[in-house]
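FORM 12-B: Structure-to-Sequence Request
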């Protein structure tokens, strides 16, 4: 009982559950402050409202402030979700031009395309790829700050909007994004790079829709999420206590979690920024979740990232992760006995058939990653037909270092570029 009260209090006090939209108001409005999408997302650093606070840039602004081209594309999935894709077609070093090879980046859980462009051109893979002559596209899955829309359902009024997990993201979101990219660019295939849940989305797509093996010529997975065999730290805690969290979320009918709001951004940024009396506690907790990495951990950048992360998602996505952690399998969402029979015609959810994946897959893992452990990456390697795995050459490389770590260009990005360039010159299977 005490655990339930404690976890419920944390959820309520943190403001990390969706509260619906309250519309616009003059002056300060508390509901606007805690409502999803309440952040004023600017496209440039120029301010016309007289406020002193640094604006939170949207993807276009984050990219264009460094002198790179940026585009936004709207895509509707087969089940009616409206997604926004982002694109960096070129840079000063490699201006936009037709015929460039396409690389698609897919973010992780409760994140957005912003995660790949916050650090800037010296670190972020998206900019490095654009400078090297690639046409860079970035996905945004249903329910996050850029894709919180549907042709019929309202995210604020219809609970049905939030009835999805990473299964639908792979089945519908990734497929719609890739089809749009291929149609727009005229290319025959893409290179898919995922981080964290972004790796799961790619695996789900290729296992459930094998025809996309012809549309994806190479997969590079950073911190792969597949089978959970040896959980550490927070993931182990979630496995052992997730049933309590699940009961709270379902009983309270909470359908949206971790939305991007002004409140969350200011509270988390203020708590974790340099000079805050709580910074040490904040950073210790983040490393408890993601893994110990004191030398690569960029405290300033991590604090700044809280203006963009978390970016929202469904309760069902969180519960899907918990179910797979508890089961130690990569399986479809467990809807319960009745729901499973209705959807799958069997008592338990089916396990994803990774044998359907014939696209070459490169798994890159961090030795200190407490979310996607090295052991789990190697376990996944043995389940894929055409794959190889390698460790980032640094002992204390954690889950967040893949996107925001110091020295990431030398430790990771240069190696990814080498893998891509080898595949372009000698064929995708040459990287195995």
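FORM 12-B RESPONSE
SEQUENCE OUT:
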């Amino acid at each position: 009982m005490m655990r339930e009260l404690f976890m419920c209090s944390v959820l309520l006090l943190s403001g990390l559950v969706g509260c619906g939209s309250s519309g616009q108001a003059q002056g300060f409005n508390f509901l606007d402050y805690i409502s999803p999408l309440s952040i004023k997302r600017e496209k440039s650093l120029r301010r016309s409202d007289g406020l002193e606070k640094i604006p939170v840039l949207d993807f276009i602004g984050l990219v264009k402030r460094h002198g790179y081209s940026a585009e936004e594309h709207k895509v509707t999935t087969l089940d009616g979700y409206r997604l926004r894709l982002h694109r960096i077609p070129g840079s000063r070093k490699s201006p936009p031009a037709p015929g460039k090879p396409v690389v698609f980046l897919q973010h992780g859980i409760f994140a957005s395309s912003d995660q790949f462009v916050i650090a800037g051109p010296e670190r972020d893979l998206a900019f490095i790829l654009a400078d090297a002559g690639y046409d860079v596209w970035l996905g945004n899955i249903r329910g996050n700050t850029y894709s919180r829309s549907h042709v019929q359902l309202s995210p604020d009024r219809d609970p049905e909007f939030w009835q999805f997990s990473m299964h639908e993201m792979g089945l519908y979101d990734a497929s719609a994004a890739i089809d749009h990219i291929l149609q727009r660019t005229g290319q025959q295939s893409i290179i898919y790079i995922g981080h964290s849940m972004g790796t799961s989305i790619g695996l789900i797509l290729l296992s459930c829709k094998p025809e996309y093996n012809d549309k994806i010529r190479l997969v590079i997975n950073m911190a792969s999420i597949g089978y959970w065999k040896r959980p550490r730290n927070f993931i182990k805690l979630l496995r052992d206590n997730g049933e309590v969290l699940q009961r709270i979320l379902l009983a309270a009918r909470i359908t949206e979690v971790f939305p991007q709001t002004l409140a969350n951004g200011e509270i988390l940024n203020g708590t974790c920024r340099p000079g805050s009396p709580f910074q040490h506690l904040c950073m210790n907790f983040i490393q408890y979740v993601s893994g110990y990495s004191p030398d690569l951990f960029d405290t300033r950048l991590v604090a700044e990232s809280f203006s963009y992360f978390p970016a929202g998602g469904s309760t069902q996505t969180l519960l899907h992760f918990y179910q797979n952690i508890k089961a130690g399998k990569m399986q479809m969402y467990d809807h319960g006995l009745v729901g499973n029979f209705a959807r799958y015609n069997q008592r338990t959810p089916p396990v994803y058939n990774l044998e359907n994946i014939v696209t070459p897959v490169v798994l890159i893992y961090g030795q200190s990653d407490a979310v996607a452990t090295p052991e789990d990456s190697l376990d996944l390697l043995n389940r894929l037909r055409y794959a190889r795995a390698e460790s980032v050459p640094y002992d204390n490389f954690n889950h967040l270092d893949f996107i925001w770590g110091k020295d990431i260009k030398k430790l990771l990005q240069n190696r990814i570029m080498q893998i891509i360039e080898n595949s372009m010159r000698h064929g995708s299977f040459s990287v195995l």
